[in-house]
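User: I would dearly like some help making sense of a protein record. This is the protein in question:
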Amino acid sequence: MKKQHLVKGLAALLMLASVGSCKKEIKSSTSPQLSKKDIKTPLNSSSAYWNLAQQTHSFVVGNILTTYNSYRVNTTTNSCYEWYNASQIYADAAFVAVGDSRYAAYMNNSYTWMGHMWNTGSSLGGYFSAANTDGSGAGGDQYVDDNALTGVTYLDAYNVTTGTTQTNYLNSAKAIANWLMNSGQWDTTYGGGFWWHTGTHDLKPTQTNGLTMQLFLRLYQITGQSFYLSWANSVRTWLEGNMYDSTSGLYIWKIDGAGAGTKHTEKFTYDNAIMLEADLLYATIAAAPTYTTKAQNLGIAMNTTLWNSTYHVYIFNTTDGRINPAWCVWGSQAMIKLYQADGNTAWLDYAQQNIDYMNSKLRNNTTFGYHSFCNFDGSNLINDYEGVDQAWMQRTQALLSNYR
């Protein structure tokens, strides 16, 4: 997952005023059939966020989706990134989960296209990072975090499909996990941890390892195979021992291999959102209830250090004050998942205000696309439309529409 542009207490949180009413939790659909007779109106269709999510999807279809069922990097580039395409599948899976089966076709067709990016020249496979829109020319390094996110995405798709389609999603997620475990990207340098990619082994980031942990935990939940849990435990031990900063209560960015093991202590919103989600998985999947408390404490730390209380938005990181939809809105997903775990609507307030900022400062109200970066006050707007930003705005607003 390439950073293309550059790379106290719970009681106080409970006192936050709610900015919207809580809605009844929506259960996931498990029958995403594509015929017209099976299309249902989502239970959250009256939500403004559901409507915004659909408008975002319309922008994607009109400007980024190709005739090959792939998604371009942005509106002006005729190439594809693996994790951009995976993020759009992730977004469409959220639509199917709330009861609108129309989006299953987009999800499944793009999944089929992803086969062009699989490394068929290796018995271990793994996805390449980039390809042409028609699937030709797949190559570049293979990124551990891109692959892990794709695996997590496929398990979301697995949850909303049936039959052969469901089996295919699971098998693809397992194939990614096999590549992760056997491709040599994990080694004992710095006590363990996954390298970022297959090229020069120059850094081990938090988000790379956090996403692998999520994938292993979810595969353990589905298959019951203990080696997935063992891998998750190894990743967790390494992260907690090497990347957790007890002073801030947050995880740092990376260990720099090129710098003889230098730790970069910047804190990124999406790094910590990923780790919060992993803690919640531990609480439920690995039957470790203390990890709910860990997730709550990490959420509090995020809202102490990574939240801008003037503009009500998550920052990109502690050394860069700009705002980006994908990186920053990942914090909203984490807060929504915290709400799902403990019912505290204060988490939803953070999620909603963060999304509201994106709609206020980064959304083009004519095209419904989202710009990639701006300053806190909305100035210095970057005039491009990255596919990954659209995907994450679609996904998080679909998730929020279940409750607000």
